[in-house]
Design goal:
This protein is an alpha/beta fold and 469 residues long. The chain has 19 helices and 9 strands. The protein is globular, with a radius of gyration of 25 Å. It starts with 5 loop residues before the first strand and ends in an 18-residue tail after the last helix.
């Protein structure tokens, strides 16, 4: 009965696709799902060359696997993960391995790591990026937790991962919840870049009156140069699709009420806990929240209407080039914020993250892959302790080269009354980070006035309090 190398719990599209990917590399795979339809889909979609077996019965599934068993979970975060683990554990033996491949909240991963270790079961959490297509043909994967367990499954994951210059986009991230933490911040960066792209789209559409064809062509063209990235690529594809029913571009028929699964929010919440400023990610989360207030926004669009017709034309013929550079500028600051959060978290939680490795495995397969990650990787190879990539000479030069365009574009957005929270937050972050003396000395004085919270001085050591009146 024991003939399968790898087991998957959760046979949704992601689970099935990753299992097919593993089967493509000559591994025998088994799948478990309580939905018979998903089990049937697994077996019906398998090719003749793949050895694949599905079941709805937990005990049958466990018996099918070679020992020590390797089982991966791809189920929704939270209680479903705990439920799946609880159903498996009584049937497992010491030395078996469970991998949580979903978007679990990192404290839950730490808890499960501890609980399963006490039972002699190896556990690690692994972020998986790339969506359905990535799962099938090569994702980026971020494992963290039990190092020995990962090393035993390393050949499988390196075989199925995306490849860049022949190098697999998977690497051990660190102890405990390191893998899921890295994936959480990855998703926060994803939120920020998606918000930035939507603002650029809005600026071009409403600000510069670009046609549907011009919009689509602009994003397609941008993706062919130094800005090449997965998110720009799919933007060009999305903007090209027509709606079969209306004949209009499909994107125009899609509701502007944005949904989210929580990972961006987790990034912001934890960033505040460890005092890692990520204002663009914060803004991206807030804008998705604001999008949900559709009824109020419709009322406000009438009550707070502003006639900005005076600013209706592109007086500056080169504005599109400014917008492109502004996108480049803000995009770099979004990565800077996320990577800086990872540096802080690595120390806070003793993960031992290698940021060069993180940038390396994000270069292929994942949603936030872009040509810029090559530069980030080299920056961390030169200085593994680099607190912020904006301090790297090459990246600093690019920021200085594009900041003027970012300011010009921000003013254009303000003049047009077009919301650009990601761009404006990126500029404020940049300006605050490069300011030798911030006005927060005044805040310290105010805090001491009303709460006797004390302050430090610039001319001598010590902690001081003043009777202000």
């Amino acid at each position: 009965m024991e003939q399968y190398d790898f087991g998957m719990v959760g046979l949704g599209v992601m689970g099935r696709n990753l299992l097919f990917n593993i089967a493509d590399h000559q591994y025998n795979v088994a799948g478990l799902d309580l939905d018979q339809g998903k089990v049937d889909a697994l077996q019906n979609e398998a090719t003749e060359k793949q050895i694949v077996k599905g079941t709805t019965k937990v005990d049958e599934f466990v018996k099918m696997l070679k020992t020590p068993r390797a089982i991966m979970l791809l189920v929704p975060a939270g209680k479903p993960v705990d439920g799946a683990i609880a159903s498996l554990v009584p049937l497992l033996e010491k030395g078996d391995i469970i991998v949580d491949g979903g978007n679990s909240y990192f404290p839950d991963t730490d808890r499960r790591f501890k609980e399963l270790s006490e039972k002699g079961i190896h556990f690690f959490g692994m972020g998986v990026s790339g969506g359905e297509e990535g799962a099938r043909f090569g994702p980026s994967m971020m494992p963290g937790g039990d190092r020995d367990a990962y090393d035993r499954l390393k050949p499988i994951f390196e075989a199925v991962a995306a490849k860049v210059n022949g190098e697999p986009c998977v690497a051990y991230m660190g102890t405990g919840s390191a893998g899921h933490y890295v994936k959480m911040v990855h998703n926060g960066i994803e939120y920020g870049i998606m918000q930035l792209i939507s603002e650029v789209y809005d600026l071009l559409k409403r600000g510069l009156k670009y046609s549907d064809d011009q919009l689509q062509q602009t994003f397609q063209d941008w993706n062919e140069g130094e800005l090449k990235s997965f998110l720009l690529e799919i933007t060009g594809i999305v903007l090209k699709k027509n709606d079969d029913e209306t004949g209009k571009r499909l994107v125009e028929m899609i509701s502007d009420v944005a949904r989210a699964k929580g990972t961006g929010k987790w990034t912001s919440q934890n960033a505040m806990d460890i005092q890692a400023p990520v204002p663009v990610i914060d803004a991206a989360v807030s804008m998705r929240d604001l999008s949900k207030y559709k009824t109020e926004r419709l009322q406000a669009s009438e009550k707070l209407a502003w006639n900005n017709a005076a600013n209706d034309s592109d007086e500056h013929g080169g504005l599109i080039e400014h917008v492109k550079k502004a996108y480049h500028f803000a995009m770099l600051t979004i990565y800077a914020q996320g990577l800086a959060q990872l540096q802080l978290a690595s120390k806070e939680y003793n993960y031992g993250l290698n940021l060069a490795e993180v940038a390396k495995i994000w270069r292929g397969g994942c949603i936030i892959r872009s040509t810029s990650l090559e530069d980030f990787m080299h920056a961390f190879v030169k200085n593994p302790e680099l607190p912020n990539i904006m301090l790297d000479d090459s990246i600093a030069a690019t920021l200085l080269d594009t900041q003027e365009a970012a300011r010009f574009t921000a003013k254009f957005a303000i003049d047009k009354g077009i919301a650009a929270s990601a761009l404006l937050s990126a500029l404020s972050y940049f300006d605050a980070y490069r300011t030798a003396k911030l006005p927060t000395n005044l805040i310290q004085a105010q805090r001491d006035y009303f709460g006797a919270h004390t302050y430090e001085r610039t001319d001598r050591e010590g902690v001081f309090h003043t009777k202000w009146e």
